[in-house]
Amino acid sequence: MQKYSVFSLIKNAFKGHKDWEVAWKDPTPKTEYDVIIIGGGGHGLATAYYLAKEHNITKVAIIEKGWIGGGNVGRNTTIIRSNYMHDENGLFSEFGMNLWRNMSQDLNFNVMFSPRGIINLAHSDAQMNVYSRRGNSMRLNGIDAVLLNREEVRKIIPMADFSENVRFPIFGGLMQPSAGTARHDAVAWGYARQADSMGVDIIQNCEVTGFDISNGKILGIRTSKGNIKAKKIGLCVAGSTNILAEKLNMTLPIETHLLQACVSEPIKPILDNVVTFGAGHFYCSQSDKGEMVMGGDLDGYNSYSQRGNLPTLQHVLTEGIAMFPFLSKLKMLRTWGGIMDMSMDGSPIIDKTHIEGLYLNCGWCYGGFKATPASGWTFAHTIAQNRPHELNAGYSLNRFSTGHLIDEKGLGTKTWIS
Amino acid sequence: MLYIKCPHCGLRSQNEFSYGGDATVKRPELNKEISDQDWDNFVYLRKSPRGKHLELWQHISGCRQWIKVERDTLTHEIFKTLKANEEL
Question: How confident is the model at residue A418 (pLDDT cuts 50, 70, 90)?
């Protein structure tokens, strides 16, 4: 594989950029693999990469219905954080933060990881108490957390609404200084390029139509490009999990919902953090191109449509304007939607299933992007070793029936309620 | 914008409604032997189909009645609406 560097860039510039190697091939599927990963999104690509890198399993195929990076890894708001209260989520995400910090070097691909800090705003004394509790839990797990008062928040984001007569005055906030953003497409492409170079077949435009199972063991998959055998198969399909589960006669604690995001026209640099509104559901950062990147609530009803509905967008942006009044002057450049695998406690599932050789990675709700490296790393371990790693042991499929829920937000089973 | 025909009030915009989830899950009957699996099915497990989905909505800014709506989760087409106690 050709190494990307400033020297290769200069060299190729002199040749008119005509001699770059393809970043990943377009192979026809073989008849058999050691492991098949269904879903060529961030998590699937990362899983294949870590299978090859950490476990020396390179006879691997990624089967993607569309094109790699065309799903949620290309549709998110690029936020990376580990500001969770519960141990399972905190330790898992902080492990992922370490992978993020080294990702550009590890993948030889600039993912533009920018640890610019995230601030969750608080709008009441009670919320400050909750944040102080969460911040202490984070620090006990080795995650950086700083509780900011109103004046400290004002120094960082003076353009927020600090006037006296607002409905939701800013009391302060909880900041994770090491959180940040990354370029989401680069994450997919970086993992794809490295996985391909280690022998992984990335098969695009190939739809899984069924599974071959015998005596409780997985034997292979049926696809639009023919049958492919494998003893181990990992499902990494986010919002499409229930569609494949139906083909497997499985019913899962997952509902598929729609989440929208949008970007404004580009403006000069004004915001160098990620900021979330505490009295609703709205988050905002500014991209390197200058666009304000914004998102918030789910549309709120089961949906597979990958396109949004305006009332939700209006509601979300109303919250945005309450937080940053200057946003009202901006024109929207693009809006889009992605389909989320909402689990019944808001936390993911990375586990084996009752079918031998079938592994499940789903339930990321609207927090899948930041989990990409940790999810791939732990899912690869789970598949290679046929048992979960201690980092994803809590993300079991049977935790719902045993009562070991990881309900970070305390919403119960209706995680789509806003 | 979805337009939902409330069986009590007629065609109204989605802004007046709040969503209540899958209408096909049934709470296990009281005072009967109930297995953990029955509870699991009721509380946590969802089919979440792509296509026709029977779901609960509440006309919260209208008559405040709960209703059932049969809707396509891919196209958002609404086929039928029913009162909460009616079966499809």
Answer: low
Number of H helices, E strands in chain B: 1, 6
Please indicate whether, in this complex, the C-beta atoms of A400 and B74 are within 8 angstroms of each other. Answer: no
Among chain B residues, CA nearest to A343: B44
- A315-326: pLDDT as tens digits: 999 999 999 999
φ/ψ of residue B59, rounded to 5: -80, 70
C-alpha A124/C-alpha A409 separation (Å) is 17
B44 — contact with chain A (CB < 8 Å)?
yes
pLDDT for residue B30: 86
Whether A415 shows a pLDDT value over 90: the answer reads no
B61 touches chain A (CB under 8 A): no
pLDDT at B77 over 70: yes
H-helix segments, A58-149? 87-101, 103-107, 125-140
What letter would DSSP give residue A10?
Answer: H
Which residue bears the tokens 């599974």? A211
CB A4 within 8 A of CB A32: no
Q: Determine the length of chain A.
A: 418
Matching residue, tokens 């979330």: A276
**Any CB–CB contact under 8 A between A248 and chain B?**
no
What is the pLDDT, as a whole number, of residue A272? 96
Domains of chain B and any CATH numbers: 1-24+50-88 (3.30.2270.10)
CA A365 – CA A342 distance, rounded (Å): 4
A65 phi and psi, to 5 degrees? -65, -40
Q: Which tokens is A336 given?
A: 């889009």
Specify the higher pLDDT residue, A415 or A371.
A371
| Nearest chain B residue to A246, by CA | B47
Q: A344 vs B55: CB contact, 8 Å cut-off?
A: no
For residues B46 and B55, give the distance between their C-alpha atoms in angstroms, rounded to a whole number. 12
Which of A257, A298, A299, A302 to mutate to probe the B interface, most B CBs <10 Å? A302
pLDDT digits (tens, 9 = 90+) for B23-47: 999 999 988 899 988 999 999 999 9
Q: Which chain A positions have a beta carbon within 8 Å of B47's beta carbon?
A: 242, 246, 251
- Concatenated DSSP letters of A152-220: HHHHH-TTS---TT-SS---EEEEETT-EE--HHHHHHHHHHHHHHTT-EEE-S--EEEEEEETTEEEE
- Chain B residues with CB inside 8 Å of A311's CB? 1, 13-15
Which of A22, A51, A28 shows the shortest CA–CA distance to A233? A51
**CA A21 from centroid of its chain's CA atoms:** 29
